Amino acid sequence: MIDRPQSRRALLAALALGWLAALIGCVPEHIPPPPARALDLPERQLAGHKGSVRAVAFSSDGRLLASAGADRSVRLWDVATGTTLLTLTGHRKSANAVAFSPDGKQFASGGDDRQILLWDVSTGKQVLTINSPGEVYTLAFSPDGKLLASGGDDKVVRVWSAATAEPWATFTGHDRAVTSVVFSPDGKLLASASYDKKIRLWDASSQQLLHVMKRHGSAVRSLAFDPEGKLLASGGADRKLILWNPNTGELLRDITECSCLIRTLAFNPTAPELAVAGEEGGIEFFSLKTFRWSHGYISHRRRINVIVFSPDGKLLASAGDDKLIKLWPATEVRKPRQP
Hints:
This protein has 339 residues and is mainly beta. It has 2 domains: 1-30; 34-333, YVTN repeat-like/Quinoprotein amine dehydrogenase (Methylamine Dehydrogenase, Chain H, 7 Propeller), CATH 2.130.10.10. 7% of the residues lie in helices and 49% in strands. It contains 2 helices and 30 strands. A 5-stranded mixed sheet has the order 1-23-22-21-20. A 5-stranded mixed sheet has the order 2-27-26-25-24, with no helix packed on it. A 4-stranded antiparallel sheet has the order 3-30-29-28.
């Protein structure tokens, strides 16, 4: 039998060990987010898709927004006016992914029809067609614009020449569909996520597998590098936001729980924070200064499929199953609202 002073010392020691383990990422950090409130900010709604909006992307200058939808259409929008510039109908099935080339002259779209289409921004003409072996769920250009990475239901990360559409490399190892691919800001690393609950990190040049990161308890749905390439964030259907060191594959923080099943996340390019969103139609913000959830908003009536900040950090775009794209003033959205 242990006396009370010993019990107290044992309890304090256990608490200290638990705090240390949480600090270095050995155990999940239970950081409950604040209750989400209705977002009462003025937003612009971009309406035109006749089905769920699966993806959106800003051009590098922030003047254009591309979107892809379950209605098979790909649209190009003028961000300043909110008007549709082009409606492109090359896909035969749902369009799931879009990505702009870094120079802003082209953008790519991919869909369930197993095609990746490259479009000329100025004319709206289809300039290249890539036939993928599987349905395409995610796309990412390399920072130099020479390569285009894709992933989908065939479990393989494929990298293509953006100039010729020829295959450049294949990265294998995932056991289930690939949900997200992203290049590091310097182009040296390529990260992929999958329904198999794993993240794989590759040397983009040598094609060598560097790390396999396992921490999520369910499908990993979204990946993002911070603007400096020092952090890799992952979010999944287990309601976890996890931060990794991309250079070592080391787990930095295992943050639970987000109030939503995470489908999408994005780093704010001008402020130390992350935004996440998902099934419940809300957007939540995690501070990289305090490492706490700062605030949350209910912003869509149905599931949110994608959120992305404009390159200058002034706008946050969100889109979802309510067929709408919404543009929010990011400087206001990031401010916690008082109850």
